[in-house]
Design brief:
By secondary structure, the chain is α/β, with parallel strands linked by helices. The chain is built from 12 helices and 10 strands. 37% of the residues lie in helices and 16% in strands. Strand 4, helix 6 and strand 5 form a beta-alpha-beta unit. The two termini are 32 Å apart.
Amino acid sequence: MALPNQSRNSQPAYLALWQSGELARRAENALSKLADCTLCPRDCHVDRLADKFSVCRVGRHAVVSSYFPHFGEEDCLRGWRGSGTIFFAGCNLRCVFCQNFETSWKVEGEEASARKLALMMLDLQERGCHNINFVTPEHVVPQILEALLIAVEEGLRLPLVYNTSAYDSLDSLELMEGLIDIYMPDFKFWDAEMARRYIRAPDYPETARRTIREMHRQVGPLVLDENGLARRGLILRHLVMPGAIAGTREILEWVARELGPDTYVNVMSQYFPAGKVSANEHVEINRNITSREFQEALQAAHEAGLRRLDARAPLRALMDSF
């Protein structure tokens, strides 16, 4: 079923809430929650307003590792001028195979005040990016809202992308409702024991199912404009793991059943050993996935009835087979 396109002249979702004063109210409410932080499923109850922290290792202000026009995202996000990615340091997961270990585990980056973060958004807009892409935002929702208010007041008009592991709280997603145009969650693991072993969060599968449903409720299936750029909706990512430990088939069947066959899904093949994975630790995943494993994942997506797979994924699989 073809989905309707959306005009390039349509306004991003957050403008109405800014004009009504709701964005300012939410930013104030979100910042108050930092005093006893339960903004993600870890429920750490630390006073981040006093610059304390726990699992995510980020206190009062966000830490940004980098920001730039990104040309490695899905075609519908990167377009021809790039997706304006802001990579937040710190993370509420502890993926042993993390491919951004220095950023997520070691929190390497520069502390960014609300104004500095707002200026990053405006700079990316000035450089012609098609959207603002918040990468790993789960633990810095209040800081994003605080900066967004400044950026919108100073002319930000790009769609917002919430690029997340799906280890979010419903409270945070409630704060983001009506502000985020495009949700882009991962669905990493289906099984609680695998999640405990590899990302240190046994409640991850249950949390991901709950939060992805909520993201889909807020924005619906992905809608593209006349140029093929994402304007609103959900893009779901799933990284295929060695030995099928992620539960790929179960995840894809759940997506088709719960969200619908027109859900836009990127089945990703780029796993490689990183982080704490080595010949001595987690040896069972100390290898790339095989072409056969990726082909089986794509076959599982087709058998589940999913009709909107990211176009580059089958191309990669075809190239890997030679």
